[in-house]
Amino acid sequence: MTVCEMNKPFTPRDIKSLSSTKELVYTNAERFGDKPLYIYVENKEKKTYTYNDNKETFDAFGTALFRLGLNGKTVSLCSDQHPHWIASFLSVIAAGGVIVPLDRELLPEQLAGFIKLTESEAVILSARELKMLSAELSDMTSLKHIIIIGQDTIPEGFDDERIKTFTSLVEKGKELLASGDTGFLDYERDNRSTACILFTSGTTGTSKGVMLSEYNILFSTVQCCRMVANDDKDVFVSVLPIHHTFALTTNHLSMSYLGGTTFMNDSLKHTFKNITEVKPTCLILVPLFLETMDKKIWDNIKKQGKEKQVKALMKMSNAMRKTGIDMRKTLFEKILNSFGGNLHHIIVGGAPLDPEIIRDFDAFGITVVEGYGITECCPLISVNPFSKRKIGSAGLVADGLEARIGDPNELGEGEIQVRGGNVFTGYYKNEEATKEAFTDDGWFCTGDIGRIDKDNYIYITGRKKNVIIASNGKNVYPEELEEYLNKSDIIKEAAVIGRNTADGIVITALIYPDKDVCGDMDDKELYEKIFSEINLINKGLPTFKHITALEIRDREFEKTTTRKIKRFLLK
Amino acid sequence: MYEEFRQLLIDKLEIEPDLIKPEAQLANDLGINSLELADLVLFCEDKYDIEIDDDALQSFITVNDVVEYLSGLIQKA
Q1: Which residue of B has its CA nearest to A296?
Q2: Which of A126, A180, A257, A414 is the most exposed place for a label (fewest CB within 10 A)?
Q3: Number of domains chain B is built from
């Protein structure tokens, strides 16, 4: 059922456009000054980083980048979330460079591969990633500077003269500024040129580098501010990986432009504890978190034998709300207190969410708004405005963006295509993929299938691409997992699919074994042997990419004339 | 350690006891997601007064992986 909550059409908020990251940082400092932008944990100690701190760090680090000759150069960035991650991201862009945020769950050789592929002259990373890269560093001769964030000293055991700390560069930058060096301050970059490259998966062979301009990033930042209902009273706990555009644009850039304060979650282990202690007013999450929270709530209710009672209260409360009486804060106080007691709403994106969970949270007193985006759009395409949701929809097409359905069927469903200021400039060194991604008249083909209703709300009904969307919102590219599987001697051909089951999407390997290698193994032995190979692969992968099911086939896969497996036949 | 961890899975995550075996895969066989595992690990840290590295979470595939890791840490503590 679709519920439209108000009759009047939604009007986006009047939020001033931005033309540069410098404007974003300076405007924020002017407006919010010594207000905390971030609260974060370093060496087990809680620290505060204000809007003014951010401006000071941004100016000093940008100035140091100029002095190091890194203005206009490519710089890779890989660490856990930290205020200096954001300052680095913004400074490199403002210094005319290209920033390459990388996933810290990459394997060492993958991390090194992306740094080399992008011809990065510097890399900014934390001690953990430096240790990961230690064996690769001597080969990375084009890398001129290695900048450590998250600590003030160079990790022990490293005597590479390229290594320096972020904080030492900030100090150097401050000295240069004090002595009148205005190179960075005076510099203005072309905001339509590539400012950021984001890779879509784990290996350099299968990944596509999404090139975004400063204009794209800021367009999306402002667009998000116009569509949501947040303001400077909001407090967030950021739990999503910072290198993902969803967290980066929606949480870190947009919410800073609105004056919010974000607590940077220090560990997945501490997520629930931090939420209870920090008392956020809003969370920006992927479905996995809501699914787990919902399950936890109901498990607790069941353990207390109160399931019937709570369901009756939910019904009664919903009925009362229709008459204008809202008793949820009293009726569900315990549940709301487990989220700190101030949580007002949750913005969720990255993967589809069960509408039942949205209704559960609504009934308890927390509004869930769903959105839809894609890295190529930086990422916002649509979001349900807080005051005008349609449950089951991926939201209203964002302000300033156009969306249409390409070649719709009789139900109005077809590929979702978009056009606007947040749409990327192309894939890094991949003209063929760039050409394929756009229609002849310049619309970006998202690869998602859906329809758009009369009010301009998007409904997603399927997917044209091979990508599997995990419930944590991360993309799993079958080609990457197939690349690993195909390295095994016992596997002749491999295909990976996301099988839809009652428990959600299950990443399944379809394997045609090499009969010469398996010899006279029986079915059970063969299954166990291949699964042991899969487990070895899984050990080197983040959990969301784990292959958890195996199906062995006795025939080769049907292939195209170019010897590619016909994926559309895979079931 | 195995018996203690098995009981934790039953009590905290309501996993069907018959499904829990040393070789059972946490995600595939028991349906435990990364966030639930992280929550469980935090509980173990408090219970046994140990600290479990965030990166170790990624290497836990089976029940036995967790049991062996916890046993190793507790012995050192």
Answers
A1: B13
A2: A180
A3: 1
pTM: 0.86
Query: Which strands make up the sheet holding A491-501, listed edge to edge?
Result: A491-501, A504-513, A549-552
- What number of other Cβ atoms are within 10 A of residue B3's Cβ? 8
B34 contact residues in A (CB cutoff 8 A) = 268, 288, 472, 543-544
B74 to chain A, any CB pair closer than 8 A? The answer is no
User: Considering only CB atoms, which chain B residues are within 8 Å of A289?
Assistant: 35
**Shortest Cα–Cα distance, B29 to chain A (Å):** 9
Q: Flag if A542 and B28 touch (Cβ within 8 Å).
A: no
In this structure, what CATH number is given to the domain that contains residue B33?
A: 1.10.1200.10
Reported as a pLDDT band with limits 50, 70 and 90, residue B34 is confident
ipTM associated with this complex: 0.80
Q: What is the H or E stretch that residue A493 is in?
A: strand A491-501
| Distant-in-sequence, close-in-space partners of A343: CB < 8 Å, separation ≥ 6 | A275, A279, A280, A281, A282, A283, A336, A366
CA distance B75 to chain A (A): 22
- The CATH architecture of the domain made up of A477-569 is 2-Layer Sandwich (3.30)
Give the model's confidence band at A540: pLDDT under 50 very low, under 70 low, under 90 confident, else very high.
Answer: confident
Q: Which residue of B has its CA nearest to A503?
A: B31
CATH number for A21-189 (one of 3.30.300.30, 3.40.50.12780, 3.40.50.280, 3.50.50.60): it is: 3.40.50.12780
